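Subject: Sanity check before I submit

Could someone independently write out the structure tokens for this chain? I want to compare against mine line by line before I put it in a report. The sequence has 316 residues.
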Amino acid sequence: MEEEPKFKRPEIVNDDSLVLYFNQYSYYCQKVLWALHEKDIKFTKYDIDVANDEHFSEWFLELNPRGELPVLQKGLLIVPGSNRILDYLEENFQNTKPLKLPWNTGTNIRNLKNTLDKLPIGVITMGSFLHPRTVVTPKSPFVQPVRYTILERDETVSSRLRGYAKTFPAFGEVLHRKADFHDRKRLVLTNEQYFLELLDILDAVLTDAETELVNLDDDTTWIAGADLSLADISLGCLLYRLYVLGLEDRFWTGGKKPQLEKYFNRILAAENFQHTLPTKTSLLKTIWLNTPSTYKAGIAAFSFSSMIIGSTLLKR
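---
Independent answer below. Compare away.
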């Protein structure tokens, strides 16, 4: 008798529905969520259980053999990856609010957006976990107990991928390549000097963004003009990721980049951006489920509110 699969394909898709498979704490998924809300496109969300490897389940690998998020589905059409999805939305929903850069956008802004889209956000995230002295005040869900759990799971990603390659041989080649890549990335990331150099590169990119923001006519325009664009989505989601990682003090607060700080506060207040944020209840659940048992006894002695530093900025 065959063993029942741990995860089954959700029965939510029909020919007319637009479905986004995502994870609520993913930078790349946040970009797509923001665009969908900004364009006021109706869609169904399916939150993939990344903590339990649902993205490496057979049904999901059939959607994206790389096991990566986000993935957009409309009937038989599958669109993987945030940049491809954003392009698809612009090309196929032309009656909605356009987010592409205006035709007359300057070279500096176009170069900035291209650079933002190429930044290794996953490397920056894991690097901040591996080198905690680089961060000051990490926010939910990346508080210390959760960071510990993520690091622990990251150590076994390669072996799990190779195990899934055996279980699902149709996807074996892709999963083996992914495991090899993770091993190389992990080896590089353990080098703190490399990570510090990466942060210096990131600081140079944000300095370029500060220069562009200084040149804005007023506080009501966005970085590429009067209307919010994909450049704002890329920059805004990056700043939010750095904020929850606890890196904002390194890059823009305390007068380091005042225009960037003002811009970030404006992003946080934007209604459609707020729609991309997890609820406080979801944050608390995530923290509790990802907290090692050795931490939980201590946590129980405190109010949960002490674990969501800065969460007053998040959607209720």
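---
OP: Matches mine. For the report I'm noting this point. The two ends are 46 Å apart (CA to CA).
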